[in-house]
User: Which sequence fits this backbone?
């Protein structure tokens, strides 16, 4: 599952085991101890005003980070984010050592004066993986460390704080102030740059991210903004400095809570996996599986592509091939079952922030998806079968067409030429009436043969349809019908040949049936095109009650129509009248 | 009289030429496709163009289209369309609004030399030659109330021959009756069918065919 999550995220996140409970406990106890020590230092301090408020604020901006970090570390060992939060929390505690009366502790505390904001920038820019993924982010963080650690130390060496620390080498308050201002303004600028990066990242991800992620990023951004404001207020001596500081502390302390809300939502989301399991137990259709997954992952844009190894391609729910390359703001997660690739889940890239949820959902859905995949495969096969049926029909038709042409160009022409020869001969034996009579009889025989050949040829392939279109062909057909037929053909253009021929056979076969069984006094033949289909209706006023189970003649007709993706239906109520309706798409 | 032939079967093309030549008709040209026919008709202005309905390249309706084009652009050239099958729908398409100088016959008909030659001459002179199969199909077409019911059997025969494009004299010869008798039948038919009597034979062909086709 962890492997899958890592794949899903498409990053090189290392796979780590969750920390042991003992480790977590030790860190938690250390955090509690640090909190207790900071409270003690505040109240024991000989240089701190308002120790209660300061202690409270100190705890407010530290313990939530340690607590949230612990939970994150435990829940998501793959991500360094939790560890970074813990480090940020403890670093802030170290800064609180400035409250100590001991010079050593006091000096150490001041060494960390600017580390908390630096760590905060680092932390925020690494969300959610705990790694800095882009060069710009790395530069921002590196610059923050140079300012917040390096220059901050220079400031201490110049004696930037009162009373001086152990780090002081010379006492140059003017230079120290300059350095301090550089640090403050530099960090302000970096905080603002961080806000910019967050805003950009949010835009890149596209789509409304799930709410808690948005909340988290907003609170982080707000925190950075407050730090930037705070440092500027400090530099320029704005009167509102104290309110800004409290505000900044408050906001910075809120960020871990946003993070915790996110984790909680994750848990809630995981409970949606329970619902998913219930849904999938019902043996849902592929469409339902897709819908259930969309619900469980709260991503309505989610789509499923099933992998068909035999076809070497992905198909959608209808068995149609699909493109699985992920677009902007989209991501793909493979779903495997028993070591076999089953499907590809295409979803909002934001879901990468919840790898566990994604992994749990995909693992749970594997079986149902396998079923769904089989159904998609079945559809693809049906499509293929339909295609091959159409090809067989087409091939048969072409063969018949070829035979008809051979007859037309061969035997029929020869017979006509022979008959003409006899005719000319007949003319030349003017006087011999017996020869003339015999030649005439021979011509009569040839005429009969030609008549038969014509029927055979017409049976093989209605050449008039290919040559002159449906309307002309149907006109002759209905003119020869044994009952009066009202014909109406509303087809503006020539249709594909296979469609025209199928339509012709539908009418001719129906008229044969009308003649044979219907006992009708009239019939109507209507052919029209509508919405890319040709609709053929043959209605008679006969006795009805015909066998609608499609006897062999009609079955063949239905096969022909269905091979073209069409439908053939017949109604024949015992009260009288029979109506046959065929619909064939014209592609 | 000059004739032009468009027929892609060499056997029939040669046979037709011989048949025509032996009966004193000039064959000014013979070709195997529609384009050559149209060029020839433009150049020679023959009295009749004999056209196979199925010509290359697609063997669909090239011949018919060429025939329709000649009828439209060269009214003085008669067109006789030959085909191995005849279709009512095609007949109506070919005739459109006039049967003048137009023929549509089953190819088999060429073996009845006398009949065929007289059909070619009729078309050359602006008359018509409609295949009996077309006429009989139209005549036998089932109708809910048959307008042909009042006709006597003899009148039906006359109607049939009339629809084929034969002149009164032709009908008289065929049925071995007097010209007067034919004229009497014709006027009786026209009044029974409530058709306006037509001045020319080809007009009366179209009138009858349209009447039967309706």
Assistant:
């Amino acid at each position: 599952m962890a492997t899958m999550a890592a794949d899903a995220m498409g990053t090189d996140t290392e796979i780590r085991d969750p920390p042991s409970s003992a480790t977590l406990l030790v860190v938690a106890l250390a955090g509690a101890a640090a909190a207790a020590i900071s409270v003690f230092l505040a109240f024991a301090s000989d240089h701190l005003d308002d120790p209660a408020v300061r202690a409270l604020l100190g705890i407010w901006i530290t313990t939530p980070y340690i607590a949230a970090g612990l939970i994150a570390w435990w829940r998501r060992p793959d991500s360094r984010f939790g560890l970074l939060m813990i480090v940020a929390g403890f670093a802030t505690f170290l800064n609180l050592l400035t409250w100590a009366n001991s010079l050593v502790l006091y000096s150490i505390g001041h060494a960390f004066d600017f580390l908390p904001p630096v760590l905060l920038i680092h932390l925020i820019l690494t969300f959610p993986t705990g790694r800095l993924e882009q060069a710009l982010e790395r530069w921002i963080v590196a610059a923050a460390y140079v300012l917040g650690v390096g220059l901050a130390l220079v400031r201490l060496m110049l004696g930037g704080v009162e009373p001086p620390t152990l780090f002081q080498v010379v006492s140059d308050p003017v230079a120290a102030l300059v350095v301090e201002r550089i640090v403050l303004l530099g960090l302000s600028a970096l905080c603002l740059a961080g806000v910019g990066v967050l805003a950009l990242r949010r835009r890149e991800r596209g789509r409304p991210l799930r709410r808690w992620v948005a909340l988290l990023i907003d609170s982080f951004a707000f925190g950075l903004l407050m730090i930037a404001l705070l440092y500027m207020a400090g530099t320029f001596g704005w009167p509102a400095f104290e309110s800004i500081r409290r505000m900044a502390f408050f906001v910075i302390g809120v960020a871990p809570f946003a993070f915790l809300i996110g984790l909680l939502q994750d848990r809630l989301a995981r409970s949606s996996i329970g619902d998913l399991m219930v849904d999938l137990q019902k043996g849902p259709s592929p469409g339902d599986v897709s819908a259930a997954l969309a619900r469980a992952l709260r991503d309505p844009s989610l789509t499923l592509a099933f992998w068909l190894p035999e076809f070497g391609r992905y198909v959608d729910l209808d068995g149609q091939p699909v493109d699985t390359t992920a677009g902007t703001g989209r991501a793909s997660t493979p779903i495997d079952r028993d070591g076999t690739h089953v499907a590809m889940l295409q979803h909002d890239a934001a879901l990468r922030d919840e790898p566990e949820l994604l992994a749990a959902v995909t693992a749970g859905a594997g079986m149902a998806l396998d079923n769904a995949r089989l159904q998609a495969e079945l559809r693809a096969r049906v499509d293929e079968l339909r295609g091959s049926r159409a090809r067989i029909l087409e091939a048969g038709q072409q063969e018949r067409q070829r035979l008809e042409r051979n007859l037309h160009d061969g035997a029929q022409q020869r017979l006509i030429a022979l008959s003409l020869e006899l005719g000319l001969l007949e003319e030349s034996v003017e006087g011999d009436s017996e020869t003339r009579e015999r030649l005439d009889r021979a011509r009569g025989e040839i005429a009969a043969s030609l008549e038969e050949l014509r029927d055979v040829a017409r049976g093989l392939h209605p050449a008039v349809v290919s040559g002159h279109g449906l309307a002309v062909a149907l006109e002759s057909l209905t003119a020869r019908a044994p009952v009066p037929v009202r014909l109406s053909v509303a087809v503006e253009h020539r249709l594909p040949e296979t469609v025209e021929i199928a339509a012709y056979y539908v009418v001719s076969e129906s008229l044969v049936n009308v003649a044979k069984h219907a006992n009708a006094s009239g019939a109507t033949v209507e052919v029209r095109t509508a919405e890319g289909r040709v609709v053929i209706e043959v209605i008679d006023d006969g006795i009805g009650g015909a066998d609608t189970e499609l006897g062999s003649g009609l079955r063949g007709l239905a096969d022909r129509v269905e091979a073209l993706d069409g439908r053939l239906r017949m109604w024949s109520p015992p009260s009288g009248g029979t109506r046959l309706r065929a619909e064939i798409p014209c592609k | 009289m000059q004739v032009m032939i468009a027929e892609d079967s060499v056997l029939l093309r040669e046979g037709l030429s011989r048949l025509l030549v032996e009966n004193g008709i000039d064959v000014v040209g013979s070709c195997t496709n529609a384009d050559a026919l149209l060029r020839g008709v433009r150049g020679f202005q023959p009295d009749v163009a004999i056209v196979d309905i199925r010509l290359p390249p697609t063997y669909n309706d090239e011949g018919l289209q060429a025939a329709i084009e000649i009828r439209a652009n060269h009214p003085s050239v008669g067109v006789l369309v030959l085909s191995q099958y005849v279709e009512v729908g095609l007949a109506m398409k070919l005739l459109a609004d006039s049967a003048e100088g137009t023929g549509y016959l089953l190819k088999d008909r060429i073996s009845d030399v006398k009949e065929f030659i007289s059909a070619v001459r009729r078309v050359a002179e602006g008359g018509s030659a409609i295949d009996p199969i077309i006429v009989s199909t139209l005549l036998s077409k089932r109708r809910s109330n048959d307008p042909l019911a009042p006709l006597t059997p003899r009148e039906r025969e006359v109607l049939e021959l009339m629809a084929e494009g034969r002149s009164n004299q032709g009908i008289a010869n065929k049925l071995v009756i007097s010209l007067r008798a034919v004229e009497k039948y014709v006027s009786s038919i026209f009044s029974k069918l409530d058709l306006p009597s037509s001045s020319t034979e080809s007009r009366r062909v179209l009138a009858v065919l349209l009447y039967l086709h309706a």
Remarks:
- Chain A touches chain B through 43 residues (CB under 8 Å).
- Confidence is low (pLDDT under 50) at residues 1-14 of chain A.
- The two ends of chain A are 46 Å apart (CA to CA).
